[in-house]
Amino acid sequence: MPLPLLPRIDRTYVHANESGALQPIRTERAFIRDEDFDFTVRWVSSLALKDAGRVSAALRRDPDYNPFLPPEEDLNVGPVGKHHLAVLNKYPVIERHLLIVTRAFESQTVPLSLADFVALARVTTELGGLGFYNGGTEAGASQRHKHLQWIPATAGSSNFDGFTARLPADVPGDVTFDATLPWRHCFVRLRPAPPGSDCALNGATLHQAFHAACDALGIAADRDPMLPYNMLTGGGWLVVIPRRREQHEGISVNALGFAGSLFVRRPEQIEVVRRIGPLHLLAAVGFPA
């Protein structure tokens, strides 16, 4: 029987640091308050390393090179159910950042399946934290191979609670919107699972919530390929945000932008985000509310 996830993650993290499989990280962080929302903007040197690594791989290998088939051995945390592996992010900004990768190739644009949500639930049920997904390149995905992601609920890792805390406690039908947000979105409240519920039940709850959000937004959740979107789940909520572009004024945005965390490739871009305003930036890469 495999070890619980957290010891496996920590053991792999220590080994990957020692072996050099994890890339060095330099960050410069700024805090920006936009209306009633708090955002963290980080200059992350590893983003430039990641870009350089992708270019190098393209030069050395065929264009279909896939870093997840197989994943780098030193980064492989191990199985998460029958169909997925947990792999450390090679270029982490947040410690223990996991990629939840399908064992067999699936495109990042195919619909999220029940099996995907069961795998995500295995992680969130044991560890809490924030799960998220970048559905396609326009939504911030950097790899074609399907991978969900997870980060722990540590100070400064995200501010998803800053968005969900504003939502009403009693939501008819569990589906709601925040009228103050200037981009299209749909939140779904996750009803607490009975004590002792297994990951299959929790995964089914996430899967149903995802379909409810897509239905409310007029998105076909079973279309292949799906239209670009971000999905985040944590703290008893799931949200889906349709996307129309990956960046605005040179600032790339992935799902974590909608949890209050933005990342830039050059330190001077922090001031670009400040000038644009995080809320306007997120509205520009999404669709008008």
UniProtKB/TrEMBL annotation:
InterPro entries: Ap4A_phos1/2 (IPR009163), Ap4A_phos1/2-like (IPR043171), Ap4A_phos1/2_N (IPR045759), ATP_adenylylTrfase_C (IPR019200), HIT-like_sf (IPR036265). Residues 5-154 form the Ap4A phosphorylase 1/2 N-terminal domain. It comes from the Bacteria. Residues 180-288 form the ATP adenylyltransferase C-terminal domain. It holds the Pfam family Ap4A_phos_N. PANTHER family: AP-4-A PHOSPHORYLASE II (PTHR38420), PUTATIVE (AFU_ORTHOLOGUE AFUA_5G14690)-RELATED (PTHR38420:SF1). This is Phosphorylase. It comes from Aromatoleum anaerobium. The lineage of its organism: Bacteria, Pseudomonadati, Pseudomonadota, Betaproteobacteria, Rhodocyclales.
